[in-house]
Fold:
Amino acid sequence: MPVMTYMEAGRAAVRLAMQADPTVWCVGEDLGRGGVFGQYKGLREEFGAARISDAPISEAGIMGAALGAAMVGTRPIVEMRFSDFALCATDELVNQIAKARFMFGGQMRVPLVVRKPIGMWRSSAAQHSQSLESWYAHVPGLVVACPSTPQDTFSMLRAAIECDDPVVFMEHKNIWALEGNVDFAETVEFGKARVRRKGGDVSIVSWSNTANLAQDAASLLAADGIDAEVVDLRSLWPWDKETVLNSVRKTGHLVVAHESVAVAGFGAEVVATVAEHAGAALQGPVRRLGAPRGLIAYAPNLEDRMRVTTEMIAQAARETLGKTTA
Structure:
């Protein structure tokens, strides 16, 4: 298996999909020069300008054009550069793309992927650092994916391109350079979590880059004799309730961690579901970690005050187990 970065894995997924299916094409700003982060580097030279299509700076226009193209038989990959910029096209996504299959009585689908890079990236400030995945998990008609590793970026992007429903694909900007083995033959199913570490003392549930921090936290906890299980949801809709519930029934303790704002974040959905269906198994208080409800500053010291860290996750696990210090 080749070792690839998170970014390279996504590019490989797009390349293989375009080689296999002539109806797959990409549209967005800066694609001709390879994309803002290099996600499309070399693809225009390989597939031409008609399939790696540069668009004017009009997110609403890009999304609306992709909607029409998907409805007449192609599979667009819509590059929004930053999830923050994609807010300019929210009406097209939420009121048109997500609802088209329902509004046309199932006679038509919209098989497109919207790539929305999320997350804090050093000193990108309030308009370029948001993690808004919970917004889209709330919208009926959308699949929401948040991969945390090169393997999942590759496999989940392939699955997203092949999906007959619209997929909001949220890659984390801070881990473009993260390396890992990538098996091109591995497939995934949306709504199936990955148990990244098995354990019996506490369940740590997360997604996107915070799942990587959770795995690091599990290593810190292991040094304390605490056996943590790490569940990476991978997709927020559909999401794998059963894997989470089974984990909590086994461990009796739960920590949910994510980078996005804690208030009304998807972590609350996880906690509520556990309370409703596995509450009797809980042997300690549930801990939920997320960003405070504040704007992300440009200054690194203030930006760091918004971050959920490996140490915070480990400490939350200790606290739910009644062990307040390492």
The longest helix spans residues 208-223. The radius of gyration is 20 Å. The CA atoms of residues 156 and 244 lie 20 Å apart. The mean pLDDT is 96.
